[in-house]
Amino acid sequence: MRFHQEHGKNISFDEQRLCATRVNSFSHAMVFSERPLCPGELFLIEIQDTTDRWTGHLKIGFTSLSPNEILERCTEEVIYDHIFHMTVPSKAITQYRPLFNFGSIDTYIHTPFASVRRQELESIRKAKSDDANICPSCTGSRIGVVYALKYKSIHMHSILNGFDYGPFAILQTESSVTETDEIYFPPKKRQRTFLNSPKPINEHTKFWAFVDVYGGTTRVRIVQLYGPSTLRSLCRSTLLSNLQSDDQINILPLHNQLKLYLKFLVA
User: Fold this and answer.
1) How far apart are the C-alpha atoms of 89 and 61, rounded to whole Å?
2) 220 φ/ψ angles, rounded to the nearest 5 degrees
3) pTM of the full predicted structure?
4) Per residue in 41-84, pLDDT tens?
5) Closest by CA position to 195, among listed 166, 176, 173
């Protein structure tokens, strides 16, 4: 995974587009994932440098608009309309309701997209400190976003140094997804439900990860979580690339469990 080649006017990339540095002012520093993410795919960054010259902190989330569409709206001032995001808190956080098994003590976290080592999500400072409550906005913190398909909704969660901070956005859809788990809504002070969007939102909507290297955060890098794809993952990618629409999954002559896997509903 790399950053998308389009970015805010105050951003500079390294040669591999893995590290983004804000070189001027405190804003106009939006960056995006190079492609839309899949359900259950975690996008993770590490804060590499900060400053006390500016207030405010990193913003992270998702957008269903392409990077070009977002940046065209931000030529004069930064507009966050149609970007589902949260601001990284400046104090240590506690566990909320975990998505998938982010709240467990297992060595690996399994999502419908792939499995990742829990250690990869933790702050690099944890190995040097006995304090597990590391401030998420500090240098060395690892901040991620992931979304999951729920019954008639899409839940977007932030992962801060390995902890699930809960849903920062719950998008209402007219989805055909079936979900047996109870839907947990965050307290009102942390709940952000967007009922309207410039594009219809459903289980087939594509979302780019969004990061604003804002305020006191000046440099971030992408943490590579996923190695070579498994054979079944490659088969899924090949099959989906040959479909004109994800709706065609339902008419394929496949077992229901395979159809759920193609829809990223099961691991």
Assistant:
1) 14
2) -135, 160
3) 0.77
4) 999 998 888 888 888 888 899 988 888 888 877 666 666 677 88
5) 173
